Amino acid sequence: MTDLGRPSVKALDGSKRLPLLVGWCLQREQRKGRTGVLVFAEIREPVRSLTHEAGIVSVWEDGVELCCRSRAAKTPRFVELHPGSHRLKFKVIRLKARRSTSFTQVVDLQEGQILVALCDPVQPDVFYRRSPDADSWVIGLFPTREKR
Known about the structure:
With 148 residues, this protein is mainly beta. Helices cover 9% and strands 43% of the residues. It has one helix at 20-32; strands at residues 2-3, 8-11, 36-41, 56-61, 64-69, 77-80, 84-94, 99-109, 114-120, 136-142.
């Protein structure tokens, strides 16, 4: 499988609004006080589509796949990790083209922190809401919700 290079990676800040399902999942995990990674891929290709152009979005740590999202599994996915330093590899794989894009990021998670990773992979056959030119990731760290 050939590597297409580095995708576009941006920091998640207050200007980007989280998708509704991601916000709900983040709040649920924060209430439980869990630590980990929340992954969501904006795959707009239908489940019954005839093309296999859409990529498989995945997160890896030390050669082990933590989770993946595809057109068959579009909902946000939370993976619990222990507090501490983690070397995570974020990857988009296209099976038909036999190509992938990836980048590695070292993340230091404190107790109760959640790393939110949103991916918008290139989807050439989608007619509505133009696909980005390169796989784009938005990543941010959310602290524990303060108890009132």
